[in-house]
UniProtKB/TrEMBL annotation:
<dbReference type="InterPro" id="IPR017853">
    <property type="entry name" value="GH"/>
</dbReference>
<keyword id="KW-0136">Cellulose degradation</keyword>
<protein>
    <recommendedName>
        <fullName>Beta-glucosidase</fullName>
        <ecNumber>3.2.1.21</ecNumber>
    </recommendedName>
</protein>
<dbReference type="InterPro" id="IPR001360">
    <property type="entry name" value="Glyco_hydro_1"/>
</dbReference>
<dbReference type="GO" id="GO:0008422">
    <property type="term" value="F:beta-glucosidase activity"/>
</dbReference>
<keyword id="KW-0624">Polysaccharide degradation</keyword>
<dbReference type="InterPro" id="IPR033132">
    <property type="entry name" value="GH_1_N_CS"/>
</dbReference>
<comment type="similarity">
    <text>Belongs to the glycosyl hydrolase 1 family.</text>
</comment>
<keyword id="KW-0378">Hydrolase</keyword>
<dbReference type="InterPro" id="IPR017736">
    <property type="entry name" value="Glyco_hydro_1_beta-glucosidase"/>
</dbReference>
<dbReference type="Pfam" id="PF00232">
    <property type="entry name" value="Glyco_hydro_1"/>
</dbReference>
<keyword id="KW-0119">Carbohydrate metabolism</keyword>
<keyword id="KW-0326">Glycosidase</keyword>
Length: 455
């Protein structure tokens, strides 16, 4: 297996999951600080207060990346570190941290890939309505422009929003992520305002960026498969695909929301200006879709598993239920289905990106890692997972998909959101008591893959 000569090999993290130092150097509170400190919200009562202490160990971590041969590092910027109140006066010490990080990455020949939003909304903006409030999209545009002005000398590739589906629906409808709401109309509004924020940021970037800089967005996507051969199950899978995939990809690339989902949300009274059963209104506001669908320079895909869907007329959740996995699973309970990555990449190019550069921005697995007496983690299961998914990615390239790079999730074991520190995704083991970093066998395997550009 060999990849194209210019294929980009990297690893990814996110600010709240690794940085720690949540009260240092002027950083403001985020919705995840508030959520994690709310009893019962995170497994084990864990928080990101310390996490991997990357805020203090960033130089060591960059040197580790270089030792592993990484060509790129995808990190996120903590909005409340730059703007503690979400807007207004910027915090120079926050900008200085990311400037130092970027400078060291470039000094070690590692390409910085910055994500502007990986779910850590400033709490001050949440108290003004958060993503349910349209004004938050404009505050994001201001933050994005400031980040580009201050860090643009060192960062060429920018992602606006990471996984808006999670921020909108896990955070506002299902209550599993910050801010912890269970309000479907709020979730639908939040989803639109997240996409609007992306469009406004792209607009600001086009006015400010150099010609060699690029801006894109990252979506998490699944393959929704019917549980059986019935037309009812196929329709159920189509509805789930609309909820998870098309609700975000269609506006970005086709300039419209899917009609079937507008009708569904309208009938449920979840769209702005509707009551239950009223159908879809004249929504969204004029001009929004043109902003949201403005051309981007690349697309980021996060893929982990598929979803098996069965029709269930009695379920309030889109008239369907999702079934348990049918094959081997990760420690997260997610089914390992590498072939779906190939199918998804082919579909993304056919239905949406049409030849635009695509990057796998996240792919990886939580496994039951065991630290042995010799100080090693022999994670052969993770190596098999990565190899099989990279093989699927290579097959998609052979099918003509313009796939340009792969970022393993994640570089470090870290604070895994609502699971706290109970799940380990990293190719580097973190001893949270001492903050010692220990590359797992998968890290050494990945280093060799990068060296050979395949295997």
């Amino acid at each position: 297996m060999r990849f194209p000569a210019d294929f980009l090999w990297g690893a990814a993290t996110a600010a709240y999951q690794v940085e720690g130092a949540v009260r240092e150097d002027g950083r403001g509170e985020s919705i995840w600080d508030r959520f994690a400190h709310t009893p019962g919200k995170v497994a084990g009562g864990d928080t990101g207060d310390v996490a991997c202490d990357h805020y203090h160990r960033w130089a060591e971590d960059v040197d580790l990346m270089a030792d592993l041969g990484l060509q790129a590092y995808r990190f996120s910027i903590a909005w409340p570190r730059l703007f503690p109140e979400g807007a207004g006066r910027p915090n120079s010490r926050g900008f200085d941290f990311y400037k130092r990080l970027v400078e060291r990455l470039r000094a070690r020949s590692i390409k910085p890939v910055a994500t502007l939003y990986h779910w850590d909304l400033p709490q001050a903006l949440q108290e003004a309505g958060g993503w349910v409030n349209r004004d938050t999209a404009y505050r994001f545009q201001e933050y994005a422009a400031a980040a580009l002005r201050e860090l643009g000398d060192g960062v060429d590739d920018w992602t606006t929003i990471n996984e808006p589906w999670c921020a909108a629906f896990l955070g506002h409808a299902l209550g599993q992520h910050a801010p912890g709401l269970t309000d479907w109309p709020a979730a639908v509004r939040a989803s639109h305002h997240l996409l609007l924020a992306h469009g406004l940021a792209v607009q600001a970037f086009r006015d400010l960026m150099r010609r060699d800089q690029r801006v894109g967005i990252t979506l998490n996507m699944t393959v929704a498969e019917p549980a059986g051969d019935s037309e009812a199950d196929r329709a159920a899978a189509r509805r789930y695909d609309g909820f998870f995939n098309r609700w975000f990809a269609d506006p970005l690339f086709l300039g419209r929301y899917p009609e079937d989902m507008l009708a569904w949300y309208g009938a449920a009274g979840a769209l702005p200006g509707t009551a239950a059963g009223a159908g879809a209104p004249d929504w969204p506001p004029p001009g929004d879709m043109a902003l949201i669908s403005a051309p981007i320079d690349f697309f980021g895909l996060n893929y982990y598993t598929r979803t098996i869907c069965q029709d269930d007329p009695h379920s309030p959740f889109f008239g369907l239920r999702t079934l348990p996995p049918r094959g081997p699973v990760t420690d997260q309970g997610w089914e390992i289905v590498p072939g779906c990555l190939r199918d998804l990449l082919v579909r993304i190019q056919r239905d949406w990106t049409r030849g635009l550069p695509v990057y796998i921005h996240e792919n990886g697995a939580a496994m039951r890692d065991v630290l042995t007496e010799d100080g090693r983690v022999h994670d052969t299961d993770r190596i098999a997972f990565l190899r099989d998914h990279l093989e699927a990615a290579g097959q998609a390239i052979a099918d003509g998909v313009n796939l340009r790079g792969y970022f393993v999730w994640s570089l470090l074991d870290n604070f895994e959101w609502a699971w706290g520190y109970a799940k380990r995704f990293g190719i580097v083991y973190v001893d949270y008591a001492t903050q010692r970093r220990l590359p797992k066998d998968s890290a050494f395997w990945y280093r060799e893959v990068i060296r050979q550009n395949g295997w």
